[in-house]
């Protein structure tokens, strides 16, 4: 019985590590524009401190009017919807990204960002 429990825990840990790896790999398509470092804006705003923040409010970044007016407070649900289809969530945003259609990659990315942006 103990061996079954240990094997189950190892499988859960491996699945979590796999999701984290997929999230980090999926984030590679974001790094051309976004940083995880505080105060490091590029073509896109830094994602540091993302969850819990209000869209369009990163210091030193020039956001589109629609993004500033969106009133979105970033949580995992809002972030998932936005990354699935940015233009549907914030029409006329300047973010030139069509979205993530692979649900596993999307879920892994949001999980990765939940920890990596703290």
TrEMBL record:
The protein's matches in PROSITE patterns, at most eight in alphabetical order, are given as: CYTC
One matching Pfam family is Cytochrom_C
Q: Where are the transmembrane segments?
A: none
**Source organism, top-level taxon:** Bacteria
* Signal sequence range: 1-19
The keyword Transport is assigned to this record: yes
Chain ranges of the Cytochrome c domain:
18-117
Q: Which UniProt keywords apply?
A: Electron transport, Heme, Iron, Metal-binding, Signal, Transport
Q: What is this protein called?
A: C-type cytochrome
Organism lineage reads as: Bacteria, Pseudomonadati, Pseudomonadota, Betaproteobacteria, Burkholderiales
């Amino acid at each position: 019985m103990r061996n079954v429990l240990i094997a189950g825990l190892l499988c859960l840990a491996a699945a979590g590590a796999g999701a984290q790896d997929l999230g980090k790999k999926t984030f590679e398509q974001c790094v051309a524009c976004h940083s995880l470092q505080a105060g490091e804006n590029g073509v896109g705003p830094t994602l540091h401190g993302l969850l819990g923040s209000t869209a369009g409010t990163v210091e030193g970044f020039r956001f589109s009017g629609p993004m500033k007016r969106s009133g979105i407070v970033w949580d995992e649900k809002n972030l998932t919807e936005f990354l699935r289809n940015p233009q549907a969530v914030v029409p006329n945003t300047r973010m030139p990204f069509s979205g993530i259609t692979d649900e596993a990659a999307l879920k892994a990315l949001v999980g990765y960002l939940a920890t990596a942006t703290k």
